[in-house]
Specification:
Distance between the termini: 56 Å
Largest sheet: 2 strands, antiparallel
Mean pLDDT: 87
Strand content: 5-15%
Structural class: mainly alpha
Low-confidence stretches: 447-462
Order of helices and strands: HHHHEEHHHHEEHHHHEEHH
Radius of gyration: 24 Å
Number of strands: 6
Shape: globular
Strand order of the largest sheet: 1-2
Length: 462
Protein backbone atom coordinates (compact mmCIF):
# COMPACT_ATOMS: atom_id res chain seq x y z
CA UNK A 1 0.00 0.00 0.00
CA UNK A 2 2.91 2.32 0.78
CA UNK A 3 4.33 1.74 -2.69
CA UNK A 4 0.94 2.61 -4.18
CA UNK A 5 0.84 5.81 -2.13
CA UNK A 6 4.38 6.70 -3.17
CA UNK A 7 3.41 6.14 -6.80
CA UNK A 8 0.36 8.39 -6.49
CA UNK A 9 2.34 11.14 -4.74
CA UNK A 10 5.15 10.94 -7.29
CA UNK A 11 2.60 11.25 -10.08
CA UNK A 12 0.96 14.23 -8.39
CA UNK A 13 4.34 15.90 -7.95
CA UNK A 14 5.27 15.49 -11.60
CA UNK A 15 1.80 16.57 -12.72
CA UNK A 16 2.04 19.71 -10.60
CA UNK A 17 5.54 20.66 -11.73
CA UNK A 18 4.87 20.02 -15.42
CA UNK A 19 1.55 21.92 -15.29
CA UNK A 20 3.33 24.98 -13.90
CA UNK A 21 6.28 24.58 -16.26
CA UNK A 22 4.34 24.24 -19.51
CA UNK A 23 2.79 27.69 -19.08
CA UNK A 24 6.09 29.53 -19.46
CA UNK A 25 7.55 27.75 -22.52
CA UNK A 26 4.17 28.20 -24.23
CA UNK A 27 4.29 31.95 -23.62
CA UNK A 28 7.94 32.05 -24.73
CA UNK A 29 7.32 30.13 -27.96
CA UNK A 30 4.41 32.32 -29.04
CA UNK A 31 5.92 35.59 -27.83
CA UNK A 32 9.29 34.98 -29.53
CA UNK A 33 7.67 34.65 -32.94
CA UNK A 34 5.47 37.69 -32.23
CA UNK A 35 8.61 39.71 -31.44
CA UNK A 36 10.19 38.57 -34.70
CA UNK A 37 7.11 39.79 -36.60
CA UNK A 38 7.19 43.14 -34.78
CA UNK A 39 10.85 43.74 -35.59
CA UNK A 40 10.35 42.66 -39.20
CA UNK A 41 7.51 45.18 -39.52
CA UNK A 42 9.68 47.87 -37.93
CA UNK A 43 12.53 47.24 -40.37
CA UNK A 44 10.15 47.07 -43.32
CA UNK A 45 8.09 50.18 -42.58
CA UNK A 46 10.28 52.28 -40.31
CA UNK A 47 7.24 52.72 -38.02
CA UNK A 48 8.62 53.15 -34.52
CA UNK A 49 5.36 51.93 -32.92
CA UNK A 50 6.44 48.38 -33.77
CA UNK A 51 9.66 48.95 -31.86
CA UNK A 52 7.72 50.39 -28.91
CA UNK A 53 5.68 47.21 -28.86
CA UNK A 54 8.81 45.07 -29.19
CA UNK A 55 10.47 46.76 -26.23
CA UNK A 56 7.45 46.07 -24.04
CA UNK A 57 6.61 42.50 -25.08
CA UNK A 58 10.27 41.46 -24.99
CA UNK A 59 10.13 41.99 -21.21
CA UNK A 60 7.22 39.59 -20.91
CA UNK A 61 9.13 37.12 -23.06
CA UNK A 62 12.28 37.42 -20.93
CA UNK A 63 10.38 36.75 -17.70
CA UNK A 64 8.56 33.73 -19.11
CA UNK A 65 11.77 32.40 -20.64
CA UNK A 66 13.62 32.63 -17.32
CA UNK A 67 10.85 30.96 -15.35
CA UNK A 68 10.53 28.28 -18.01
CA UNK A 69 14.22 27.42 -17.72
CA UNK A 70 14.12 27.19 -13.91
CA UNK A 71 10.93 25.11 -13.78
CA UNK A 72 12.19 22.82 -16.55
CA UNK A 73 15.38 21.94 -14.70
CA UNK A 74 13.31 20.62 -11.79
CA UNK A 75 11.60 18.02 -13.96
CA UNK A 76 14.95 16.71 -15.16
CA UNK A 77 15.90 16.03 -11.55
CA UNK A 78 12.59 14.29 -10.93
CA UNK A 79 13.47 11.71 -13.56
CA UNK A 80 16.33 10.66 -11.30
CA UNK A 81 14.71 11.04 -7.90
CA UNK A 82 11.15 9.81 -8.45
CA UNK A 83 11.30 7.99 -11.79
CA UNK A 84 14.65 6.20 -11.81
CA UNK A 85 13.18 3.00 -13.27
CA UNK A 86 11.78 4.98 -16.19
CA UNK A 87 15.21 6.55 -16.71
CA UNK A 88 16.88 3.15 -16.51
CA UNK A 89 14.52 1.49 -19.01
CA UNK A 90 13.87 4.38 -21.44
CA UNK A 91 16.91 6.59 -20.87
CA UNK A 92 18.65 5.39 -24.03
CA UNK A 93 15.87 7.11 -25.99
CA UNK A 94 14.78 10.07 -23.87
CA UNK A 95 18.28 11.01 -22.73
CA UNK A 96 19.72 11.73 -26.19
CA UNK A 97 16.54 13.46 -27.36
CA UNK A 98 16.60 15.86 -24.40
CA UNK A 99 20.34 16.36 -24.91
CA UNK A 100 19.72 17.33 -28.52
CA UNK A 101 17.20 19.88 -27.26
CA UNK A 102 19.81 21.49 -25.00
CA UNK A 103 22.56 21.46 -27.64
CA UNK A 104 20.52 22.74 -30.58
CA UNK A 105 17.83 24.89 -28.97
CA UNK A 106 18.66 26.11 -25.48
CA UNK A 107 22.17 27.27 -26.39
CA UNK A 108 20.75 29.04 -29.44
CA UNK A 109 18.11 30.83 -27.38
CA UNK A 110 20.44 31.71 -24.53
CA UNK A 111 23.25 32.77 -26.85
CA UNK A 112 21.17 35.35 -28.72
CA UNK A 113 18.79 36.40 -25.93
CA UNK A 114 21.18 39.02 -24.54
CA UNK A 115 21.66 40.55 -27.99
CA UNK A 116 17.90 40.64 -28.53
CA UNK A 117 17.16 42.31 -25.19
CA UNK A 118 20.16 44.63 -24.78
CA UNK A 119 21.76 44.88 -28.21
CA UNK A 120 19.72 47.58 -29.97
CA UNK A 121 22.61 50.06 -29.96
CA UNK A 122 25.41 47.49 -30.00
CA UNK A 123 24.64 45.73 -33.27
CA UNK A 124 23.10 46.96 -36.49
CA UNK A 125 19.38 46.62 -37.28
CA UNK A 126 19.92 43.52 -39.40
CA UNK A 127 22.18 41.95 -36.77
CA UNK A 128 19.59 42.56 -34.10
CA UNK A 129 16.82 41.13 -36.26
CA UNK A 130 18.98 38.06 -36.86
CA UNK A 131 19.35 37.61 -33.10
CA UNK A 132 15.57 37.85 -32.65
CA UNK A 133 15.02 35.28 -35.38
CA UNK A 134 17.53 32.93 -33.73
CA UNK A 135 15.74 33.19 -30.39
CA UNK A 136 12.40 32.47 -32.08
CA UNK A 137 13.94 29.59 -34.02
CA UNK A 138 15.45 28.23 -30.82
CA UNK A 139 12.05 28.05 -29.13
CA UNK A 140 10.65 26.12 -32.09
CA UNK A 141 13.60 23.71 -32.20
CA UNK A 142 13.15 23.13 -28.47
CA UNK A 143 9.50 22.30 -29.11
CA UNK A 144 10.58 19.85 -31.81
CA UNK A 145 12.82 17.77 -29.53
CA UNK A 146 10.59 17.85 -26.45
CA UNK A 147 7.56 16.77 -28.48
CA UNK A 148 9.59 14.07 -30.20
CA UNK A 149 10.57 12.59 -26.84
CA UNK A 150 7.06 12.80 -25.46
CA UNK A 151 5.49 11.46 -28.66
CA UNK A 152 7.79 8.44 -28.55
CA UNK A 153 6.30 7.67 -25.14
CA UNK A 154 2.85 7.80 -26.76
CA UNK A 155 3.57 5.92 -29.99
CA UNK A 156 6.97 4.19 -29.70
CA UNK A 157 8.70 2.82 -32.77
CA UNK A 158 12.24 2.37 -34.12
CA UNK A 159 13.43 0.58 -30.98
CA UNK A 160 14.24 -2.84 -29.57
CA UNK A 161 14.10 -4.30 -26.06
CA UNK A 162 17.55 -5.48 -24.95
CA UNK A 163 18.08 -6.77 -21.40
CA UNK A 164 14.92 -5.04 -20.26
CA UNK A 165 15.93 -1.68 -21.71
CA UNK A 166 14.53 0.24 -24.66
CA UNK A 167 17.33 0.88 -27.15
CA UNK A 168 17.18 2.76 -30.46
CA UNK A 169 17.67 0.87 -33.69
CA UNK A 170 16.44 3.58 -36.11
CA UNK A 171 16.69 7.16 -34.86
CA UNK A 172 14.64 8.59 -37.72
CA UNK A 173 11.73 6.30 -36.83
CA UNK A 174 12.20 7.10 -33.13
CA UNK A 175 12.10 10.85 -33.74
CA UNK A 176 9.39 10.87 -36.42
CA UNK A 177 7.10 8.42 -34.66
CA UNK A 178 3.44 8.18 -35.76
CA UNK A 179 1.95 10.81 -33.43
CA UNK A 180 4.86 13.29 -33.59
CA UNK A 181 3.82 15.48 -36.57
CA UNK A 182 0.30 15.97 -35.19
CA UNK A 183 1.44 16.67 -31.65
CA UNK A 184 4.17 19.07 -32.81
CA UNK A 185 1.71 21.10 -34.89
CA UNK A 186 -0.95 21.02 -32.17
CA UNK A 187 1.45 22.19 -29.45
CA UNK A 188 3.12 24.90 -31.55
CA UNK A 189 -0.21 26.41 -32.57
CA UNK A 190 -1.40 26.15 -28.96
CA UNK A 191 1.63 28.17 -27.84
CA UNK A 192 0.87 30.89 -30.40
CA UNK A 193 -2.73 30.95 -29.16
CA UNK A 194 -1.58 31.24 -25.53
CA UNK A 195 0.55 34.28 -26.38
CA UNK A 196 -2.11 35.75 -28.67
CA UNK A 197 -4.84 35.76 -26.05
CA UNK A 198 -2.49 37.19 -23.42
CA UNK A 199 -1.63 40.03 -25.79
CA UNK A 200 -5.29 40.60 -26.70
CA UNK A 201 -6.32 40.48 -23.04
CA UNK A 202 -3.64 42.98 -22.02
CA UNK A 203 -4.68 45.36 -24.80
CA UNK A 204 -8.38 44.88 -23.93
CA UNK A 205 -7.64 45.92 -20.33
CA UNK A 206 -6.05 49.16 -21.50
CA UNK A 207 -8.88 49.83 -23.96
CA UNK A 208 -11.27 49.52 -21.01
CA UNK A 209 -9.10 52.06 -19.17
CA UNK A 210 -9.70 54.52 -21.99
CA UNK A 211 -6.39 54.24 -23.82
CA UNK A 212 -6.53 54.50 -27.61
CA UNK A 213 -2.83 54.96 -28.46
CA UNK A 214 -1.24 53.03 -31.27
CA UNK A 215 0.71 50.37 -29.29
CA UNK A 216 -2.46 49.27 -27.49
CA UNK A 217 -4.70 49.29 -30.55
CA UNK A 218 -2.12 47.59 -32.73
CA UNK A 219 -1.42 44.88 -30.13
CA UNK A 220 -5.16 44.21 -29.93
CA UNK A 221 -5.59 44.13 -33.69
CA UNK A 222 -2.58 41.94 -34.47
CA UNK A 223 -3.47 39.39 -31.79
CA UNK A 224 -7.05 39.09 -33.03
CA UNK A 225 -5.99 38.71 -36.67
CA UNK A 226 -3.70 35.91 -35.52
CA UNK A 227 -6.56 34.21 -33.63
CA UNK A 228 -8.83 34.45 -36.66
CA UNK A 229 -6.29 32.43 -38.63
CA UNK A 230 -5.04 30.05 -35.95
CA UNK A 231 -8.20 28.90 -34.19
CA UNK A 232 -9.75 27.24 -37.29
CA UNK A 233 -6.37 25.74 -38.18
CA UNK A 234 -6.02 24.37 -34.65
CA UNK A 235 -9.45 22.74 -34.92
CA UNK A 236 -8.39 21.01 -38.15
CA UNK A 237 -5.07 19.89 -36.65
CA UNK A 238 -6.88 18.63 -33.55
CA UNK A 239 -9.23 16.61 -35.75
CA UNK A 240 -6.27 15.01 -37.57
CA UNK A 241 -4.62 14.32 -34.21
CA UNK A 242 -7.78 12.60 -33.04
CA UNK A 243 -7.82 10.30 -36.07
CA UNK A 244 -4.17 9.42 -35.40
CA UNK A 245 -4.94 8.70 -31.74
CA UNK A 246 -7.87 6.47 -32.72
CA UNK A 247 -5.49 4.43 -34.88
CA UNK A 248 -2.65 4.08 -32.36
CA UNK A 249 -4.32 4.51 -28.94
CA UNK A 250 -7.95 3.45 -29.37
CA UNK A 251 -8.56 2.96 -25.66
CA UNK A 252 -7.61 6.61 -25.05
CA UNK A 253 -10.32 7.71 -27.49
CA UNK A 254 -12.85 5.41 -25.83
CA UNK A 255 -11.98 6.92 -22.43
CA UNK A 256 -12.21 10.49 -23.78
CA UNK A 257 -15.65 9.72 -25.20
CA UNK A 258 -16.87 7.75 -22.18
CA UNK A 259 -17.63 4.91 -24.60
CA UNK A 260 -18.00 1.45 -23.05
CA UNK A 261 -19.71 -0.63 -25.71
CA UNK A 262 -18.73 -0.95 -29.36
CA UNK A 263 -21.80 0.40 -31.15
CA UNK A 264 -22.61 -1.24 -34.46
CA UNK A 265 -23.98 0.86 -37.31
CA UNK A 266 -22.76 4.19 -35.94
CA UNK A 267 -21.40 5.55 -32.66
CA UNK A 268 -23.24 8.18 -30.64
CA UNK A 269 -21.36 11.08 -29.03
CA UNK A 270 -21.64 11.49 -25.28
CA UNK A 271 -21.76 15.28 -25.16
CA UNK A 272 -21.95 15.26 -21.35
CA UNK A 273 -22.08 12.67 -18.63
CA UNK A 274 -20.02 11.00 -15.92
CA UNK A 275 -18.06 7.84 -16.76
CA UNK A 276 -18.30 5.34 -13.90
CA UNK A 277 -15.23 3.10 -13.97
CA UNK A 278 -16.69 0.59 -11.51
CA UNK A 279 -20.12 0.25 -13.12
CA UNK A 280 -18.60 0.43 -16.62
CA UNK A 281 -21.14 2.93 -17.88
CA UNK A 282 -21.42 6.65 -18.45
CA UNK A 283 -24.10 8.00 -16.16
CA UNK A 284 -26.39 10.92 -17.07
CA UNK A 285 -25.11 10.74 -20.66
CA UNK A 286 -26.48 13.18 -23.22
CA UNK A 287 -26.10 11.15 -26.42
CA UNK A 288 -26.16 12.53 -29.97
CA UNK A 289 -26.65 9.62 -32.40
CA UNK A 290 -23.96 9.02 -35.06
CA UNK A 291 -22.04 12.21 -34.13
CA UNK A 292 -19.21 10.19 -32.58
CA UNK A 293 -18.73 8.34 -35.86
CA UNK A 294 -18.85 11.56 -37.88
CA UNK A 295 -16.24 13.27 -35.72
CA UNK A 296 -13.92 10.36 -35.06
CA UNK A 297 -14.11 8.39 -38.31
CA UNK A 298 -15.58 10.97 -40.72
CA UNK A 299 -18.30 8.51 -41.65
CA UNK A 300 -21.96 8.02 -40.66
CA UNK A 301 -21.58 4.45 -39.42
CA UNK A 302 -17.92 4.32 -38.40
CA UNK A 303 -17.19 1.87 -35.60
CA UNK A 304 -15.24 2.84 -32.47
CA UNK A 305 -14.15 0.23 -29.98
CA UNK A 306 -15.55 0.61 -26.47
CA UNK A 307 -13.50 0.34 -23.30
CA UNK A 308 -14.98 -3.07 -22.46
CA UNK A 309 -12.92 -4.52 -25.32
CA UNK A 310 -9.74 -3.69 -23.41
CA UNK A 311 -8.53 -5.25 -20.14
CA UNK A 312 -9.48 -3.25 -17.04
CA UNK A 313 -5.84 -2.79 -16.11
CA UNK A 314 -5.17 -1.10 -19.49
CA UNK A 315 -7.94 1.49 -19.29
CA UNK A 316 -7.18 5.17 -18.55
CA UNK A 317 -9.23 6.97 -15.86
CA UNK A 318 -12.10 8.04 -18.09
CA UNK A 319 -13.72 10.74 -15.85
CA UNK A 320 -10.54 12.86 -15.93
CA UNK A 321 -9.90 12.74 -19.67
CA UNK A 322 -13.63 12.94 -20.49
CA UNK A 323 -13.89 16.37 -18.84
CA UNK A 324 -10.39 17.72 -19.54
CA UNK A 325 -11.03 17.13 -23.25
CA UNK A 326 -14.37 18.95 -23.10
CA UNK A 327 -12.80 21.88 -21.28
CA UNK A 328 -10.19 22.15 -24.03
CA UNK A 329 -12.75 21.88 -26.83
CA UNK A 330 -15.21 24.24 -25.15
CA UNK A 331 -12.56 26.92 -24.73
CA UNK A 332 -11.50 26.37 -28.34
CA UNK A 333 -15.03 27.15 -29.49
CA UNK A 334 -15.07 30.32 -27.37
CA UNK A 335 -11.72 31.33 -28.88
CA UNK A 336 -13.18 30.95 -32.35
CA UNK A 337 -16.16 33.06 -31.26
CA UNK A 338 -13.81 35.83 -30.08
CA UNK A 339 -12.00 35.83 -33.42
CA UNK A 340 -15.23 35.92 -35.46
CA UNK A 341 -16.77 38.67 -33.31
CA UNK A 342 -13.57 40.69 -33.70
CA UNK A 343 -13.86 40.39 -37.48
CA UNK A 344 -17.48 41.57 -37.41
CA UNK A 345 -16.65 44.50 -35.12
CA UNK A 346 -13.67 45.39 -37.27
CA UNK A 347 -15.90 45.56 -40.36
CA UNK A 348 -18.33 47.76 -38.45
CA UNK A 349 -15.55 50.07 -37.22
CA UNK A 350 -16.27 49.29 -33.56
CA UNK A 351 -13.37 47.02 -32.63
CA UNK A 352 -11.82 49.60 -30.29
CA UNK A 353 -15.09 50.96 -28.89
CA UNK A 354 -17.20 47.87 -28.03
CA UNK A 355 -16.65 47.65 -24.27
CA UNK A 356 -18.63 44.42 -23.94
CA UNK A 357 -16.20 42.80 -26.36
CA UNK A 358 -13.21 44.20 -24.48
CA UNK A 359 -14.54 42.57 -21.32
CA UNK A 360 -14.98 39.31 -23.22
CA UNK A 361 -11.41 39.46 -24.58
CA UNK A 362 -10.05 40.29 -21.12
CA UNK A 363 -11.90 37.34 -19.61
CA UNK A 364 -10.50 35.08 -22.34
CA UNK A 365 -6.90 36.15 -21.68
CA UNK A 366 -6.04 33.00 -19.64
CA UNK A 367 -8.14 30.71 -21.87
CA UNK A 368 -5.15 29.61 -23.93
CA UNK A 369 -3.27 28.55 -20.79
CA UNK A 370 -6.27 26.67 -19.36
CA UNK A 371 -6.93 24.92 -22.68
CA UNK A 372 -3.23 24.03 -22.97
CA UNK A 373 -3.14 22.41 -19.52
CA UNK A 374 -6.44 20.61 -20.19
CA UNK A 375 -5.00 19.28 -23.44
CA UNK A 376 -1.88 17.97 -21.71
CA UNK A 377 -4.02 16.34 -19.01
CA UNK A 378 -5.99 14.60 -21.75
CA UNK A 379 -2.82 13.43 -23.47
CA UNK A 380 -0.86 12.28 -20.42
CA UNK A 381 -3.66 10.84 -18.28
CA UNK A 382 -5.10 9.22 -21.40
CA UNK A 383 -1.81 7.33 -21.85
CA UNK A 384 -2.17 5.66 -18.46
CA UNK A 385 -1.44 3.13 -17.13
CA UNK A 386 1.64 3.35 -19.36
CA UNK A 387 4.72 5.54 -19.19
CA UNK A 388 5.89 4.24 -22.56
CA UNK A 389 2.71 3.09 -24.25
CA UNK A 390 2.40 -0.69 -24.41
CA UNK A 391 5.95 -1.23 -23.11
CA UNK A 392 6.52 0.25 -19.64
CA UNK A 393 3.82 0.76 -17.03
CA UNK A 394 3.78 3.78 -14.75
CA UNK A 395 3.72 1.54 -11.67
CA UNK A 396 6.98 -0.03 -12.87
CA UNK A 397 8.63 3.33 -13.57
CA UNK A 398 8.71 4.83 -10.08
CA UNK A 399 11.80 4.89 -7.86
CA UNK A 400 11.94 2.76 -4.69
CA UNK A 401 10.93 5.69 -2.47
CA UNK A 402 8.60 5.88 0.50
CA UNK A 403 5.28 7.70 0.61
CA UNK A 404 6.78 10.02 3.23
CA UNK A 405 9.67 11.02 0.96
CA UNK A 406 7.35 11.65 -1.98
CA UNK A 407 4.87 13.56 0.17
CA UNK A 408 7.46 15.84 1.79
CA UNK A 409 9.07 16.70 -1.54
CA UNK A 410 5.64 17.37 -3.06
CA UNK A 411 4.78 19.76 -0.21
CA UNK A 412 8.11 21.57 -0.60
CA UNK A 413 7.60 21.93 -4.33
CA UNK A 414 4.11 23.36 -3.90
CA UNK A 415 5.28 25.96 -1.37
CA UNK A 416 8.41 26.96 -3.30
CA UNK A 417 6.60 27.09 -6.64
CA UNK A 418 3.88 29.35 -5.33
CA UNK A 419 6.47 31.67 -3.79
CA UNK A 420 8.96 31.79 -6.68
CA UNK A 421 6.71 31.50 -9.71
CA UNK A 422 3.90 33.37 -8.00
CA UNK A 423 6.29 36.32 -7.65
CA UNK A 424 7.27 35.98 -11.30
CA UNK A 425 3.67 35.93 -12.48
CA UNK A 426 2.86 38.90 -10.22
CA UNK A 427 5.73 40.87 -11.76
CA UNK A 428 4.59 39.93 -15.26
CA UNK A 429 1.04 41.09 -14.49
CA UNK A 430 2.38 44.37 -13.06
CA UNK A 431 4.22 44.98 -16.31
CA UNK A 432 1.13 44.15 -18.33
CA UNK A 433 -0.91 46.52 -16.19
CA UNK A 434 1.39 49.34 -17.33
CA UNK A 435 1.06 48.15 -20.91
CA UNK A 436 3.01 49.05 -24.06
CA UNK A 437 3.80 52.75 -24.32
CA UNK A 438 4.39 54.99 -27.33
CA UNK A 439 7.79 56.58 -26.86
CA UNK A 440 8.42 60.20 -27.72
CA UNK A 441 11.00 60.89 -30.46
CA UNK A 442 13.49 61.88 -27.75
CA UNK A 443 12.96 58.69 -25.75
CA UNK A 444 13.03 56.62 -28.90
CA UNK A 445 16.43 57.98 -29.95
CA UNK A 446 18.13 57.28 -26.63
CA UNK A 447 20.61 54.39 -26.50
CA UNK A 448 18.95 51.16 -25.38
CA UNK A 449 15.54 52.81 -24.87
CA UNK A 450 13.17 51.49 -22.23
CA UNK A 451 9.55 52.12 -21.49
CA UNK A 452 9.40 55.07 -19.07
CA UNK A 453 11.31 53.51 -16.16
CA UNK A 454 13.58 50.65 -15.31
CA UNK A 455 11.74 47.29 -15.32
CA UNK A 456 11.79 46.89 -11.52
CA UNK A 457 10.23 50.31 -11.05
CA UNK A 458 6.83 48.77 -11.72
CA UNK A 459 7.09 47.04 -8.34
CA UNK A 460 7.42 50.45 -6.66
CA UNK A 461 4.40 51.80 -8.47
CA UNK A 462 6.45 54.40 -10.35
Amino acid sequence: MEQLDALLLARLQFAFTVAVHIIFPAISIGMASFLAVLEWRHLLTGDRVYKDMFLFWSKIFAISFGMGVVSGVVMAYEFGTNWSEFSRVAGNITGPLLTYEVLTAFFLEAGFLGVMIFGWERVGPKGHFFATLMVALGTLISTFWILSSNSFMQTPQGHAIVDGRIVPVDWLRVIFNPSFPYRLAHMTIAAFIVAGFLIAGCAAYHLLQGRRDKPVKRSFSMALWLMLFLTPVQILVGDAHGLNTLEHQPVKIAAIEGLWETEKGGTALNAFGWPDMEAEQTRYALKIPHLGSLILTHSWDGEIRGMKEFPKEDRPPSPIVFWSFRIMVGLGMLMLLVAVLALLLRKGGRLYEARWFHWFALGMAPSGIIALIAGWVTTEVGRQPWTVYGILRTADSVSPISAQQAGVSLLIFVVVYFLVFGAGVYYMLKLMKNGPMELTPDEFSRPNPVLRNRPLDVLKGE
